[in-house]
Amino acid sequence: MLFNSYEFIFVFLPISFFIYFYLNKKDLTEVGKVFLVCSSLFFYSWWNVAYLPLILFSMIFNYFMGKSLSKGGTFQKYISKRNFLIFGILSNLALIGYFKYSDFFIDNINYVLNTDIDLLNLALPLAISFFTFQQISYLVDSYRHQTHEYNFLNYALFVTFFPQLIAGPIVHHKEMMPQFALVENKMINYRNISLGLFIFSIGLFKKVVIADTFAVWASAGFDTATTLNLIEAWATSLSYTFQLYFDFSGYTDMAIGAALIFNIKLPINFNSPYKATNIQDFWRRWHITLSRFLREYVYIPLGGNRRGEFRTYSNLMVTFIIGGIWHGAGWTFIFWGMLHGLALAIQRLWNSLGFSLKPWLAWLITFNFVNITWVFFRAKEWSDATKVLRSMFSLDNVVLPSVLLNILSSLDKYGVEFSQEYVRHINGDKWTGIWIIVAMIVVVFAMNSNQLLERYKTLYQELWSSILVGFLLFYSIKVMAVVTDSEFLYFNF
Fold it and tell me: Helix, strand or coil for residue 275?
């Protein structure tokens, strides 16, 4: 079930809300939790009920593993606590590895050994990357005695709570469960409803109006066009850069908004990453909870920066290669992760030598690095990436808008062409460039959703705020009526 669907907005969300708080009002809080868990599992099963047993098995297994790690158990007679934790982590990785990476592994074995092993062609269970990492963090926190209550119903609610189940944020047990225990959170809070609808409406607008518009141009350039000229190539890469930005930040806003309606505050997961002036700053702003997971459960356990410069650089590379693999089973994802790890290592070396750049230049380099590396992230095959990148940096096929002919006519002797169809291969029109310019201004200079939400907290009773929410919801729902529901990009990961 998509957040940007009529079923969710007009049926699932209001019914879940009213029944949950009705049960709490009647002092049936445990029944309310059961209902919310069942609703969340229904939300998950809407995609494919065949994978419901998978998430149930994963929850039961990790619940008892975490409980044993925290309180101790008979396993300590036969295996050390550390090895028991390793067993739990490897079991989770084996689950995600089987469904997500089996065909990638088989495909590479076939290529290297010239064999012909049949692919398994397994459908990727929805959200497996997110709920697996979330439960791995739970096991590690239990091992460290950082989890303090072990009720299975509460644990099931922690894992399945539908606003964050499908694509994050990746939350800690200690962040979520105290909120469900608060008495005031069991009652309807009209302020939180207003705040939730406000941020949800912004996210919905980002997704169905902005991201899905850029998706048309990005898909045409990556998947349809066989050749691209210079402008088309940059329009293609920038379209995906902004599609991913508004798609993922839109999902994050909608998740935060839906949770707020239930009086639950999810952690910030997206904070204007395209304003970053270095790659470390970018990763402090993009998918913040994934960055936190990689830092706390991969980078620091590997030694972090405590074991010398060489190990620090190695740990950065390993951490971001793992981050690339987490996103997808393909060499393009691995290469994307490697590039970001290398960039972080270079930045660390640059800082250690005492160098600095003007802020505008630092931003320009960072943004263009991110934009270029997104090409590998988006490309289905190496050929798709090389097609776009080669055209982005080639002057052999330059087509400019015909309105520039009088100003730049001298360039025609260098092979530059002028045409009204300067973006014909990506189904573009005069609005493509305008959308890209507007999107750039918004992501660099405008307040982000978190800042707007903070401001709205003091103005939520103002008439203009209600009008804004109404307009965003009305217009987005109007667009949904003529556009087929599209999945969020991070559902693929």
Answer: helix
